[in-house]
Amino acid sequence: MRVVALLSLALLVSCGTPEYRAERQICTADWLQKIPPVYQQQIVTRYRTEERPTGVSVCTPSGNQQICRQQMRTIEIPYTAVETVDINESRRNPQIAACAARSCQAKFGNAECKTD
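^ thats the sequence. predicted structure below, dont judge the formating
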């Protein structure tokens, strides 16, 4: 469960300037205490792709032979999965983003912590 939270955090902080990532990290630590993660298992629908033949062959001449290949199409196949999710994440993430933007605005004069 902690791995999911850490991966989510890593994805969130991978964007922006180093200064923005630092401010966001501080805000994340603060808001994780204010709105702690609550993990819950949920059934979700996911999709996997699969190649299936269309029934049409495409043939091309090659010397004195014809090489035929079955034309394929990609389809999505739904399946259900049980995932552990943080049900507080959707409440906490906007607070973290707003906190980082406020901090950047105060320190750098812009919401992205750009130093240019």
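Helices lie at 2-13, 18-34, 89-108.
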